[in-house]
Design a protein that fits this description.
Elements: E1 5-12, E2 21-24, E3 29-33, H1 41-51, E4 77-86, E5 89-99, E6 109-115, E7 118-120, H2 122-131, E8 139-140, H3 144-150, H4 153-164, H5 166-284, H6 288-377, H7 379-453, H8 457-499, H9 507-517, E9 524-527, H10 528-531, H11 539-546, E10 553-555, H12 558-571, E11 578-580, H13 591-596, E12 602-605, H14 617-624, E13 628-630, H15 633-639, E14 645-647, E15 652-653, E16 659-660, H16 673-789, H17 793-879, H18 884-939, H19 952-969, H20 975-1038, E17 1042-1047, E18 1058-1063, E19 1070-1071, H21 1077-1094, E20 1099-1103, H22 1111-1124, E21 1129-1133, H23 1137-1142, E22 1145-1152, E23 1155-1159, H24 1164-1170
Parallel strand pairs: 3-21, 3-22, 8-20, 10-11, 13-14, 20-21
Antiparallel strand pairs: 1-2, 1-4, 4-5, 5-6, 6-7, 9-10, 12-13, 14-15, 15-16, 17-18, 18-19, 22-23
Helix pairs in contact: 3-21, 4-20, 5-16, 5-18, 5-19, 5-20, 6-7, 6-16, 6-17, 7-16, 7-17, 8-16, 8-18, 9-16, 20-21
Amino acid sequence: MGPMYLREVQLENFKSFGKKVRIPFLPGFTAITGPNGSGKSNISDAILFVLGPKSPKMIRAGRLTDLIYKGKKDVNYCKVSLVLEDENEEIVLTRKVKRAPLPDNPDNYYSYFYINNKAASLSDFVHILSSSNISANSIVQQGDVTAIVEMGDVPRRRILDDIAGVSEFDRDIEKSEKEKAEVEKNLEYIGIILKEIRSQLNKLKNERDGAIEYKKLDEELKKAKAMLSYKKRTEVEREIGEIEKQINSYQKERERLESEIKNLRDAYRKKQIELQNIEEKIAGLGGAEVEEIKEKTNAAREEMIKAKEKINYFTQEIVEGKEERKELEANLSRLKKEIKNYSKRIDELEKELTDKTKSIKSREAELEKIRQSITHSDKRAMDITRKLAEIKKRYEKERSALHELELKRDRLMQQVDSLGITISELEENKNTYEFELKDIKWQISEIGKSEREKRKGKERLEQELFQKKKEEAEISAALQKLDREVIHLQRELSRLKAKEDASSYTRATREILKARDEGKIRGIHGSISELGEVDEKYRRALGVAAGRRAEAIVVDNERVATECIKYLKKNDYGRTTFLPLNKMIVGKPRGKALMTVKENGSLGFALDLVKFDEIYRPAFWYVFGDTIVMENLEVARSAMGGVRLVTLDGEIIETSGAMIGGSMPKVTSFGDADKRMVGEIGKKLMDVTHQQELLSEKLIEVREQIAAVGKKLREFSDEVDDRIGRLEIRKKEFEGKLEVILKELGKKKEEHEKLQREIEQIGNEIQSKASLIEEMEKEREQAEARLKEISKKEVTSRIEELRREIDELKEKERNISSEIKTLSKEMEIVVEREKEVRGRIDEIERKEKEYSSEIKELQKIYSENKDKMEALMEVERSMLGKMKGLTKERDELYKESVEIENKIDSFSTKMETSLDLISRAKSRLPTLEQTLAEMMLETENYEFEGEEIPPIEELKARIKEIENRMERLQPVNMRALEEYERQDERRRKFEEDVHRLKEQRRNLIKLVEEIEKKKKDAFYTVYEAVKENFELIYTELLGGGEAELVLENKENPFEGGLIIKARPKGKRIMRLNALSGGEKSMASLAFIFAIQAYDPSPFYILDEVDMFLDGKNAEKVADMIKERSRNTQFIAISLRRVTLNKADHIYGVTMQEGVSTIVGNVNLSQVEEIVEVK
């Protein structure tokens, strides 16, 4: 294949070509002919159309839409494609123009570009065409030859300017000149600034000199003060030495007291050994009969414990169910109220909607009446009115559709939010069930491990005996330690109780705590307010949140709680709440609480803001539950509903929505130090007394437990089977719940994703509708504006007023309608929720009945075993009466041990006093050491070793003198130092900028000179080449003669024009305008061919360039085209016989019924039949 050529032109609806036409071309010389008006020149227009002229006049059209075929067929576009072939590659360039009339611009159109049938831009076209050296210059149109003849010398020179790229050079020169102007402007500006800076420097110099003198004196002052500090440092070091001597003396006294305490402790240990011997004798009195009774007692106790555990479990379930039912009933009441409010509000809105609709109809009727009156008076107004009615109809339709879409999106978003909450709750339940399952499996595993332990029964029994003996020794040691503390604790307790403000507690609570402190009742830990500590910031909020539950008494178990209740009844002290730790259960925050605690303004769960021992967590959960502490009431309001909230100021918002607030009464506070200490000391006293009384029973119990091990082993298997059975039932229950939850969770997530996709799709539709409505509004405004122009002013004013009122009313109508639909949907959700709540209440009531029946049976079993155990214990107590003598001896030894402990306490108190004195002495050291460090810091920058330091008085006098001199210098502008340096630095920088800008200006001047030279060189390169081509082509074209291109100003060609001179064969040399018509045309063609020879294109289109030539000259032009077509494709539109005769291929163009038609590759005789060939 050869070089690139134009293989085909495809036209569709272009000018006179009213249908799809394909015109194939081959390399070489192709001629196109046809009668005048047949449309043959429209082919060159089509090619020029694709090559991208910006003005439609170049393709003989007033505007681009005039290129669209205007025949009978109703078309609104035209399209032309050029198929270029280069070796194996084919490029199809397509341009399309499509009408797109607008109300204010009926001639509007859109232009499209395609490369190989893919959308492209004009710049993409330009890139491909320029890289192939194809442009509009490849086409010589009708009149181009004449234009060269008629144009002036300067415009003719500009043809060469364009080829040489002079405009690019001119743009670079213009850019450089602008930059130079900017540089000169900056130089002028900087000169002004420099002048001001130098003036400021002169003013600052005096102030700077004064500041330098002041700074020098300041340095002398610092040195003098450092010398003074150096002299005083010795006194501080001496005082530190005296304090260190005192500390050493107190340390020796402390060591003496420690030695005394050590001796007393040795004596105490001896007494304990004697006590242990007596305890062993007491233990020896127990026999097989006692062990048998103990065994039966323990069996009855175990049955009681099992029954009690089950009773507690079912009771807790009933309590929790009642609490949940109470909340649900409150919710049910709230939901009923909401449904009633929804119904009422919907009725009100429907009435308001009816009123708005009536108002709209009334105003529209008036508006229509006015328009009708305008319509009957003016035909134009009638047309506009009809158009407005049509726009209004479409507008209302689209507006209604948009409104429906927005409503649908809002409903879907509500569903998404609701689903999000449901998914969160399901996730929470899933996690809970998974945790419960894991715990059950762990318990089953642990039971399995204990089964394996059965095989080691004998070894374990022996180990247990050893451990019980060890336990006996440990209890004795613990008792000795507690006895030593009794006296000290009793004194401290009396002191604290005198300070305690008991008015915040009820009498029942005070009496129970008093019974604990006096050791009347054991197993009492204290009140909730005693056991917790809180930061001052949260004290009020937590006190209010706890309320009277802060007085709740924490006890070991339900037995202690029962004993306390009986004590209150017996003495008529009132009522209070008890929290047995063995039965209290830690709850979990609800889903809504977990979501609310993450919101802004939340300070966390109340439970998490209290410090307490982890064993009390169930009790504190009972007090606070999932209550959340919020910053203030405004923040709490935004989160209220379904969760209990308390603010830092003490306002409470209950789960039901109830709000409690106002002035603050006195509430039980948390973390009160004295109360907490009373509780702690009372508990310690109770524990000591309890341990003293139970010590003998504990030692006997150790032996009883050894005897009971055998029975425990025999019963272990049944017990394990029973526990595993219960755990397996619970395991299946939770597995079933988990399976249901997982299915529901998957379904809800899938539904959630589907809704999200649907919302996204609707969002796109809303955007599209909104754009369409916006366009309609513009169209309506334009139509109304035209209607106003032809209407009376007062009528126009009324139309505008009515239009505005109607728009406002319709907007309100849409909003009301939207609100009705939204409220209706919300009411449906509330009604559905009401059904769910009712169902849950029914389920809770059913379970309450089942649990109550179980509790009755278990209470019967518990009572039977309790009676049996009490009878056995009475027998046991009567058998242990023989031990009273030994018990008395043991008590005497115990009393002596307590006296030794009191002495130890006395010496300990003295030792504490010594430690306090040491602490006080040491507390003085940091201040002195800090003073010493400051003195050393003042002197660290000076070296005075070996230097003679003046006396202190002389130093003080020098300091005063320096201070006086500094005072006389004031006021001193110390900033002048910094400001002078800053301004001087600015001066240096600006001077550097001036130097740089001057250099930049020189470079720009030099650059402009270089560009001017390059521009001139580029022009001369083109000029010389075209000139040489012109001279050769002219001689070749005319078969003799000569011609030349002459510059008017050779030194500066851009200040003159380009002259064409020619000497036809046998004539003298003349300028172009002095030649005959044919000679002018031949010279112009030679000039065009010369330019083409300099900048060759793959193909050329010549549109009737031989029109004004005689036969001889036309033949010469045809010969040259024929010769040049060996290397370049030429397509010539012509009516000349000589031109057609030289062509390799000939196409004919005819017109039938206003449509141009191509006649294929024809011979000259066929052409002559349809065309008048000259």
